[in-house]
Amino acid sequence: MPADVVVDALFGAGLDRPVEGAARAMIEAMNVQSCVYAIDLPSGINGTSAAVMGLAVKAKETVTFFRRKIGHALLPGRLHCGTVRVADIGIPATVLDHLRPRAWTNAPEQWRESFPLPRVDGHKYSRGHAVIVSGGLASTGAARLAARGALRAGAGLVTIATPREALAVNAAASLAVMVRPVDGAPELSEFLNDRRRNVVVLGPGGGVGRPMRELVLTALAGERAVVLDADALTSFADEPKTLFAVTRSRATATVMTPHEGEFSRLFSALSLEVRSKLEKARNAAQETGAVVLLKGPDTVVAAPDGRATIAENAPPWLATAGSGDVLAGIMAGCLAQGMPAFEAASAAVWLHGEAGNAAGPGLIAEDLPEAMPAIFRQLVAQLASRR
For 20, 103, 206, 360, which has the most beta carbons within 10 A of its beta carbon? Predict the structure, then answer.
């Protein structure tokens, strides 16, 4: 029987077992109604993991209290909540001093204090030098996308380190981005001896196998920040302990940027042990000593100390070839300017999402760096007014 309004208060956020029997039948009945309002969290959603416990209410709106929960932010829980409203029920904000939350929605408030604003007396060398390691002749596009992202994110200089076979292709397609011939790990080591080259990105279009493993270990041996993406991660799927031993020993920033498939290959044990995306990213960060950015529509950035951000601003049209390469480059641009790894990764994810929203439906990866100046104008004005 249709109803004007249905209020769902069947289960709370602590549900940790599958919904069965009469409760399941009630949820099925609610889900054929057009106007369901959920109290705290739609029934059937686990508040900690955002998992659907067999079946869950699909609400038009959800009213929660004091602060939102993880289940409101992560998928699939977020998809069941509709519009989320937070009601004030008299709990003072000072309670947070005792609770000490370690997870936040990814927004400028979480990283604005360390976000680099250009100085009047600054110059390109003071804004860092990002190095993007290119793949071979047939796979140079990913490195160029990353390089463009790094430049747009504010790195003072960006160089593509390219195999000689791809030198002409990379050089012909680059203007402000520099191109230098670098073949193999020994030449990369020599190239990175210049300490001004303070961040390196490996993986986009780089190929999977022993040569990539050698490049990664060479980059990690120095003191520069390192971003490991795509093929740089998959190349260690059969020997992850080799990679983790090195990343744990580093004092300098390391960021890993897997999507779910790459994560499951590299962290197979962790993927089986837990269901929560937040918990998986945190466990991986603790295991590796690196900041782990687990990509998706609800990208989680986790630090080894347990801090985490969850992205909510990523539009669906970001799911296109090369989008992740641009994200790796944006991150390199933030790191090149001296942002700490956790803050740099969180800022990069937010900027990437905002660029996707600005470019809109039909975007391709090349559009993302070009959308960033408008995003930066708004962000810089906002941050400058608060400092």
Answer: 206
